[in-house]
Structure formats: C-alpha cells, structure tokens
Design a protein that fits this description.
Elements (H helix, E strand, L loop, with lengths): L11 H8 L4 E8 L4 E4 L5 H19 L20 E5 L3 E9 L2 E8 L5 H21 L12
C-alpha cells in the first residue's frame, strides 16, 4: 500500500483553500530541514524556498530554548515540543505551525497579531492541519551516500 504523505502528494490545493481566507497573503508547506513541499499560488518558488529555510531555522531556534525554559536533560529528551510561532510585524504577521512529523506550515497574514484576520488565519490553519495531519507528514529522507 502506498503511503500518502506531503512529499508524495501535491498539497497545493489545500494551501490555496487556506489562502482564500480574508487577510491571508501566502501559505506554504515545508519540511523541518527547510525544503519546500508546496506553496499557494502567487508565491514565487524563490521566495517560497527562502521562507522555508527561514522557517526551519526559526523552528530549530525555538526547540533550543529548553534551558531558558528551565528544562534539563532529565526532562524527557530535554527539548521543547514545538507547536507554533507568531512573528508580529507592523502591518503583517507570519505564523509558523508544526503540521505533522517533519513538516510545518507557514502563513503570512495582512495585519498585526491582534487583528481579526490573524485570529481567522490561526483558526483556519489549525483546522486544516487537524483535518489533513496524516497527509501533511513527510517521510524521513535517507542520509546522503558517504555520510554517517
């Protein structure tokens, strides 16, 4: 049986549906190591790939805050479980969500983090992720030849 995951199925249709919500500018699906899996229509591949790399870095930085949050090696794996990030700018907000194993969803929204548009975008994104979570996962990629 074929495993349907975000790296084997084109999820652009789901991102385009989400992008129809009021205030949403662009949506993309990325792997935790920064590869673009899908993007809403209207976002150039270059901008999407650059955003994926940035989102991957944001995710990694957040996971490295365990010590700052008072966790140590005795607390499970000593790492925080990443759920979402809100980056609030003057006229736009960028939302980054954990979507499934090894994936995340980035959403740009017109408006600051306290706007109604951002509230709608958060709700709509979480609903999409809950509904599609198994398909939003990505398979683990094999290590390149010659590495250990």
């Amino acid at each position: 049986m074929t495993e349907h995951t975000a790296d084997t199925v084109d999820m652009t249709w789901a991102l385009n549906e989400l992008a129809r919500e009021r205030g949403i500018v662009n949506v993309l699906l990325f792997t935790s190591d920064g590869l673009l899996l899908a993007a809403s229509d209207g976002l150039s591949r270059e901008d999407a790939e650059r955003a994926c790399a940035a989102f991957s870095g944001m995710k990694a930085l957040n996971q490295d805050l365990s010590g700052f949050c008072g966790l140590d090696e005795g607390d499970g794996d000593g790492r925080l479980t990443w759920r979402h990030i809100v980056s609030d700018m003057k006229d736009h907000t960028v939302l980054v969500f954990a979507a499934g194993r090894r994936t995340g969803v980035g959403v740009s929204v017109r408006g600051d983090s306290m706007s109604q548009e951002v509230a709608v975008a958060i709700t709509a994104t979480m609903k999409m992720i809950r509904g599609l979570r198994p398909v939003l996962e990505a398979r683990e990629r094999p290590a390149p030849a010659g590495t250990s």
